[in-house]
């Protein structure tokens, strides 16, 4: 179906308020763009809900996981991904780092009147491709259109359900003194890519977002090390956000080694120029895993054997903290020590 | 916690970009407003996902239902509700009309920089109250903040999971010739209320939205009439939208009687003045149920016994349609007939 056969889209190929009105124009947009991209059976009667046999879910594990995120990234498209891949990866990863196998996603779109339909098509296509790569289906959704000026282009909210494997007891509060912290690769790529893509920094660097679904990697890690204590994806707030939460929730000191942090020279360069710290930059395909020290080598090997974990590295260790003194300590390259504080505000608005 | 003790909120009590940054200001907003309103245990470690024992879900039924909606209503607050009650009711109702018992909701907020924190608090409080009334918990969420001008106040996306009772086979495609169509009460209240609340029509009428969670009503109906064919809540696109979808999916003619449609005189008056049709006005607490003719009296009695079904009425009947001739026919008060077409565009932008 070409853009022109979707009622409500004019010769200029742009979204109109009619596409959010609950009538024929909206149906045409959903059928012609979203169902066409996401559904195995676009002609099936459209119910307002997706359904799953409980027996099929129970065959995957003993607990259901449920998570949601809105995405408002600016620009909508950037090297390495777009708002759609970000949304699919973000929700898949929130499920995966909790030990869940992602089963299905919903996708709710808020579109601005005047948005180019071709952009919507590209974003839907990349969401579909990303979902396929993650082995997850986009099964239900919603479309709203707001007048020009009431929303900046396109926002999408993805919600995911997944099933947690039996016996898996991952929690941000489960870190123990002696455990090691591993990351699966280069830090800060997404934040640096968005910064460069905004184009107002006159940086002559093209960096790609690390946006990727991590469920294959987390499955491999859990297969190798069933007693992983905790995993978290290091999105907004970066690795600093994850580690400060870990220290607080697990009542430990997290001691990390700056020299061990994997950071691309280009990202380090961008950070140096702009006075940013890669520890606080957002990632969209990076996680921190906490594992018992005895399992560190096995965990590292399992991660490195996966394409998304080739640069995995042990970056630190958990230690006993005096009551009320949980914190993250960083040993810098010159032998000094500093406390890594929780990010306070917004380094980069609309990073995801 | 007063507004002033939430970091990032100035003396003017307004949201700043820091509240979406993934750091301490965002944590404070989530802890001080959202968890305070929604959580039984606000001090528990914050995981990025909510979890449910599969055995508890399986005890409720044999299928999981999953549905999502974004809400962009303007104004945010109106007689009879606000964007928060709308979001909770909308998602609860999408689950309920599929025969599911709602179990849990997620809530993802997109806030504009400069939004009054007091508004956010009020909306969170009414979501919590509405969720309590519906017997459902808000278990996970997300908060993004976009710069002034990139979003018009506050958008919220709610996603729900529920469990469908065994044997329930409700579908928009299940209507059969001979079945009757029942609505649970007055039509068009929400659409008319929003129109009046916008204040640019100089109408001297105050109408309240009918915004309400319908799961109690649907449970009562399904208890009385287990073989309900189909239920749909008549939101965007109004009853006309639901009935035209029903005719198309079930391959039937839907014949309705204008004189039988329950419409408040005030709503009929607003429609007359503005040239609108109550059939197309949005509802947020109204559903159409299709039941076998033999069960019509029992269904009607069950609905009328419920506070949200006191004005329930049989409004029409399904008839055999010649192939390709499915449609909705309305018999008007003067003995005439007209075809009710699917809504095409947007009568009232940002109605939900």
TrEMBL record, chains A, B:
Residues 61-164 form the PurM-like N-terminal domain. It comes from the Bacteria. SUPFAM superfamilies: PurM C-terminal domain-like (SSF56042), PurM N-terminal domain-like (SSF55326). Residues 176-319 form the PurM-like C-terminal domain. InterPro entries: HypE (IPR011854), PurM-like_C_dom (IPR010918), PurM-like_C_sf (IPR036676), PurM-like_N (IPR016188), PurM-like_N_sf (IPR036921). One of its GO terms (biological process) is protein maturation. Belongs to the HypE family. This is Hydrogenase expression/formation protein HypE. It comes from Gluconacetobacter aggeris. The gene is hypE.
